[in-house]
């Protein structure tokens, strides 16, 4: 199997995985039960503690997770969450183990495996394609800024994750989680259900126990929605907190990296590693630095906090949305933890030109990114469209959105000006209610409405599991607030998480 064309594991990597599968699972059985949590579902804190006690090495952990990916992603339920394994992962883990034996630790992420969405540049043997066969060629020449940060923090990039091709900007109506390179991704809880959002493989991979950490990107709902659908913690930071350099864009007007983990604390640890000003990304120039995002995490963080929540409202496309059972139970948990709940009537600003503005941004930002990549079959949007016409794939899916973007008569300056107006109106819609009701944050169901408002505003948001539906699909709650309130939101989400403990491992149901 050639990873350049199938988007799956290299033959060498698969052979390594299959050869170690049985021995690794058996060899780590005792360690996995030491804390009554299976190794694949252990937190970063637990894994780091085991490594510090010399009960576990990074190499052993990487081999264990590779074997799990082989068992569940390539075989068994075939989740198609991992588009490509890193053939150098074991060597990297061995080097990090050697550092630890010499008394050097890079911090809590030292030796911890992480999955990277397939739109982040990695200067290694892996491809960076946004799920598109049109981008299969030479690997990226340099790491994305946030990828370098993760490497510097001591993580082991175990592989790249599948995603909705071109971050779902190919054609409306295509299945979420599908890419021409990686195939159709599946939800590990209910295999026939949707994965949602373009960071689908990152969310499904974390949920399935392929890695404790993953990174994705969001323009509008592509972290928060798959986090909800796959039952994990998804955090979209304030726009500009994390660098966008070296990431295949929709548009920098709204794109941001974000985290997908199984716990809020693990997300906060990733935030500690990913903060920092990038000279190549002007959007990060005024981002706060030097923050310990774990500092406010406490079980009593909700005590006395004023939390707004939406009552029944008419959402996008005229849908009437009412709070579900799991959300009402979540509100009860908040009150039990001392939060003061304030009912709200949500406000949705005018968004009539929103998608045109995003397309105008992509028309500029994508070609600018393509110019940074050599050895690719395409260098322009027109060449991408031509490639897709010549290589329709087995599914034969269309690409009308790409064609519309190419034909759009809008300059980047026009797109920027119009987006600034939209961004300001959405920020105002949130800030006015926060100020009017003296709120610390707002909580909602993962209904798409609140996710949309927070995304266009460029404001931070945290998705946390809240329960399970009868059919076996996860539900979640969605905390969001004003600009740079990321530490406070993580604290509120942590307090709710610890009180509710709703994280569920997947059942891999047909």
Descriptive account of the structure:
Pfam families: Amidase. Keywords: Signal. This is Amidase. Residues 1-26 form the signal peptide. The chain is an alpha/beta fold and 510 residues long. It has a domain at 3-294: Amidase signature (AS) enzymes, CATH 3.90.1300.10. Helix content is 38%, strand content 14%. The protein has 17 helices and 15 strands. It has helices spanning 3-6, 11-27, 29-33, 44-52, 58-74, 89-101, 145-152, 200-207, 224-230, 264-274, 325-336, 354-370, 381-390, 400-407, 412-436, 449-457, 486-500, and strands spanning 82-85, 113-117, 156-161, 178-179, 183-184, 213-218, 233-236, 256-261, 306-310, 313-314, 320-321, 340-344, 441-445, 461-468, 474-480. The strands form three sheets. The chain has an eleven-stranded mixed sheet, sandwiched between helices. Strands 4-5 form a two-stranded antiparallel sheet. Helix 10 (264-274) runs antiparallel to helix 17. The radius of gyration is 21 Å and the shape is globular.
Summarize this entry quickly.
Residues 1-26 form the signal peptide. Keywords: Signal. This protein is α/β, with parallel strands linked by helices.
């Amino acid at each position: 199997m050639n990873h350049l064309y199938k988007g799956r594991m290299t033959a060498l990597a698969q052979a390594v995985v299959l050869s170690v599968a049985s021995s690794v699972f058996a060899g780590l059985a005792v360690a996995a039960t030491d804390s009554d949590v299976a190794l694949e579902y252990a937190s970063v804190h637990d894994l780091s503690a085991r490594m510090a006690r010399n009960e576990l090495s990074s190499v052993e952990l990487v081999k264990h997770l590779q074997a799990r990916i082989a068992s569940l992603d390539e075989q068994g339920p075939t989740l198609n969450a991992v588009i490509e394994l890193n053939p150098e992962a074991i060597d990297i883990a061995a080097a990090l183990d050697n550092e630890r034996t010499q008394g050097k630790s890079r911090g809590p992420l030292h030796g911890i495996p992480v999955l990277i969405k397939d739109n982040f540049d990695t200067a290694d043997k892996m491809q960076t394609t946004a799920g598109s066969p049109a981008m299969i060629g030479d690997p990226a020449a340099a790491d994305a800024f946030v990828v370098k940060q993760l490497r510097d923090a001591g993580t082991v990039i175990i592989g790249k994750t599948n995603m909705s091709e071109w971050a779902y900007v190919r054609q409306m109506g295509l299945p979420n989680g599908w890419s021409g390179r990686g195939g159709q991704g599946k939800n590990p809880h209910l295999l026939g259900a949707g994965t949602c959002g373009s960071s689908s493989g990152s969310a499904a991979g974390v949920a399935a126990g392929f890695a404790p950490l993953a990174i994705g990107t969001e323009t509008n709902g592509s972290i928060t929605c798959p986090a909800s659908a796959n039952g994990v913690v998804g955090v979209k930071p304030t726009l500009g907190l994390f660098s966008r350099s070296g990431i295949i864009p929709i548009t920098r007007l709204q794109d941001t990296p974000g985290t997908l983990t199984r716990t809020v604390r693990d997300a906060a640890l990733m935030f500690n590693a990913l903060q920092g000003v990038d000279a190549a990304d002007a959007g990060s120039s005024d981002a706060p630095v030097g923050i310990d995002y774990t500092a406010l995490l406490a079980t009593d963080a909700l005590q006395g906090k004023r939390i707004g929540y939406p009552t029944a409202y008419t959402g996008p496309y005229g849908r009437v949305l009412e709070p579900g059972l799991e959300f009402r139970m979540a509100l009860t948990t908040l009150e039990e933890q001392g939060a003061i709940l304030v009912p709200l009537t949500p406000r949705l600003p005018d968004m009539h030109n929103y998608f045109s503005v995003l397309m105008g941004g992509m028309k500029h930002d994508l070609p600018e990114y393509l110019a940074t990549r050599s050895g690719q079959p395409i260098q322009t949007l027109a060449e991408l469209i031509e490639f897709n016409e010549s290589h329709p794939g087995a599914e034969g899916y269309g690409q009308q959105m790409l064609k519309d973007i190419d034909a759009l008569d809008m300059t980047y300056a026009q797109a920027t000006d119009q987006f600034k107006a939209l961004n300001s109106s959405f920020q105002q819609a949130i800030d006015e209610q926060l100020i009017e009701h003296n709120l610390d944050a707002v909580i909602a169901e993962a209904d798409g409405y609140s996710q949309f408002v927070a995304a266009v505003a460029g404001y931070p948001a945290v998705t946390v599991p809240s329960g399970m539906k009868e059919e076996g699909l996860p539900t979640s709650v969605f905390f969001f607030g004003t600009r740079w309130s990321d530490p406070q939101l993580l604290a509120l989400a942590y307090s709710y998480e610890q009180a509710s403990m709703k994280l569920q491992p997947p059942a891999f149901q047909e």
